[in-house]
């Protein structure tokens, strides 16, 4: 076996990133989501095989040469009926049991905080918070999926944007830049065209409407400001809950990952003003997929 070869996989609600570290040389691949409620069992197998084989071919190795792998699988731990085939699919491609699977909030934390105590908030297509204290106690908070939760996620924001469009269209609300941006994004002339388009959209496609928030905030759109207030209140609640339930000794390092963070300074300033706990908001140490590689090394050492 070749020493120093680690595979990290970061599965999200929109895409799956594969990163192979071979003695410090990095090889990457991007595939579609492996969320078990968005792809079939066969598709899960196919995506894992495609991504792993892609990085291995680029590195000139076989999957059997990988020392250890960490796979962050979206929705993992939420759907017990999928876990057996998730493990089966990964084992089939790697040809061994030298891997660990966990929810994608775990590698988000590891990447953002270099696997050190603190809290990471994922606000991408979905949303979830994950924290680890100095004693190694861990906790996840939020992340209940698009029907029951995922507050502050891209999908959650996207639905609010679409709802505002309908109210602006029929006159319940005054038209703002949000109305124009939705029409532009959908390339429609008749507002009623939205029915057929949106009803057939995937979760990640609805989440893509959250990008309209940035333009609307730059325009001081009052409805976008209202959404920002809701988003930041939900995120602050998650941070304060994890801070209360775990046993942090000092000021808590807090980081963020996911596409909604592109809202930038306006988002972070509002979160900081709402959080009651003693926190230190930091830039991420590295990416979630690098976090998977960090964890692959960690579990290889432990094994």
SSE topology sketch:
Layout: E1 5-11, E2 15-22, E3 25-32, H1 41-59, E4 68-72, H2 80-94, E5 99-102, H3 104-113, E6 118-123, E7 127-132, E8 138-141, H4 145-148, H5 154-169, H6 177-186, H7 194-199, H8 203-207, H9 212-218, H10 222-245, E9 252-257, H11 265-274, E10 279-281, H12 288-302
Give the tags.
five-stranded mixed beta sheet, single chain, 303 residues, alpha/beta, 47% helix
Low-confidence stretches: none
- Span between termini: 15 Å
H/I helix tally: 12
Order of helices and strands: EEEHEHEHEEEHHHHHHHEHEH
User: Which strands sit side by side, in order, in the main sheet?
Assistant: 3-2-1-4-5
Content of β-strand: 15-25%
Oligomer classification: single chain
Counting helices, strands and paired strands, the structural category is alpha/beta
């Amino acid at each position: 076996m070749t020493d120093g070869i680690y595979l990290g996989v970061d599965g999200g609600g929109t895409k799956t990133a594969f990163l192979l570290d071979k003695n410090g040389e990095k090889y990457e691949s991007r595939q579609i989501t492996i969320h078990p409620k968005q792809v079939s069992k066969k598709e899960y197998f196919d995506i894992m095989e495609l991504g792993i084989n892609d990085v291995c071919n680029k590195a000139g190795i076989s999957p059997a040469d990988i020392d250890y792998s960490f796979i962050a699988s979206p929705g993992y731990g939420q759907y017990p009926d999928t876990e057996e085939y998730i493990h089966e699919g990964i084992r089939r491609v790697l040809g061994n049991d030298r891997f660990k699977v966990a929810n994608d909030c775990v590698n988000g934390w590891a990447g953002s905080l270099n696997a050190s105590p603190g809290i990471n908030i994922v606000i991408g297509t979905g949303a979830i918070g994950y924290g680890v204290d100095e004693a190694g106690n861990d906790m996840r908070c939020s992340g209940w999926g698009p029907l029951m939760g995922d507050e502050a996620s891209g999908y959650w924001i996207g639905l609010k944007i679409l709802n505002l469009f309908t109210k602006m269209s029929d006159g319940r609300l005054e038209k703002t830049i949000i109305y124009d941006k939705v029409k532009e994004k959908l390339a429609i002339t008749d507002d009623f065209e939205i029915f057929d388009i949106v009803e057939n959209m995937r979760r990640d496609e609805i989440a893509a409407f959250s990008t309209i928030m940035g333009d609307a905030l730059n325009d001081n759109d009052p409805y976008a400001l209202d959404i920002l207030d809701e988003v930041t209140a939900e995120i602050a609640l998650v941070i304060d809950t994890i801070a209360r339930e775990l046993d942090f000794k000092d000021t808590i390092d807090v980081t963020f990952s996911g596409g909604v963070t592109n809202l930038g300074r306006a988002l972070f300033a509002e979160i900081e003003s709402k959080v009651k706990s003693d926190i230190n908001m930091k830039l991420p140490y590295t990416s979630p997929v690098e976090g998977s590689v960090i964890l692959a090394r960690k579990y290889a050492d432990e094994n």
